[in-house]
Amino acid sequence: MKKPELNITPFVDIMLVLLAILMVSVTVSTYQEKTVNLPQGSKTTPAEKKATINIVIKKDGSVLVNKEKFSGNDFLENFNLKYGNFNKNALVYIAADKDIKYGLFMKIYAAVVKTGFTQIGLLTK
């Protein structure tokens, strides 16, 4: 007489499907806390607003830095003289006309980086 064998493959398949369903349902469900009464914060010191430098490159090649006109050719020297001692953590925003030459934009961008500014943003429409 042949001894009966135990086949556990269907059992493992069912357990894996149940495990997958459990994993999906746990990640979808969110835990909601009851309302929490937060303590009162101090109102003595407001958050500091970082200094910003706004650079606008116009279609004709002229460059405005905080509404002060610079020429595109000697921008590096003038920008370095004027803003070389400025806080290097200041935010620098560059807004360039879409029809300017790429070389002019890169010259302005390189001058800003060479001066030491690291937080540079490019503005778009």
Task: Describe what this molecule looks like in 3D.
With 125 residues, the chain is an alpha/beta fold. It has a domain at 52-122: 2-Layer Sandwich (Nucleotidyltransferase, domain 5), CATH 3.30.420. The chain is built from 3 helices and 5 strands; from the N terminus they run H-E-E-E-H-E-H-E. The chain has helices at residues 9-28, 75-83, 102-115; strands at 52-57, 63-65, 68-70, 91-96, 119-122. Strands 3-2-1-4-5 form a 5-stranded mixed sheet, with helices on one face. A hairpin with a 5-residue loop joins strand 1 (52-57) and strand 2 (63-65).
In short:
The chain has 125 residues and is an alpha/beta fold. The chain is 34% helix and 18% strand.
Strand tally, please? Answer: 5
Helix content: 25-40%
Classify the secondary structure makeup into a structural class. Answer: alpha/beta
What CATH architecture of the domain at 52-122 do you see? 2-Layer Sandwich
- Give the percentage of residues in beta strands: 15-25%
Could you give the distance between the termini? 84 Å
Strand order of the largest sheet: 3-2-1-4-5
Q: Specify Rg, calculated over alpha carbons.
A: 31 Å
The CATH class label of the domain at 52-122 is Alpha Beta
Low-confidence stretches: none
Determine the mean pLDDT: 81
Q: In DSSP terms, counting alpha (H) and pi (I) runs of 4 or more, how many helices? A: 3
Main sheet specs: 5 strands, mixed
Instruction: Say what the CATH topology of the domain at 52-122 is.
Output: Nucleotidyltransferase, domain 5
Run of helices and strands: HEEEHEHE
Shape: elongated
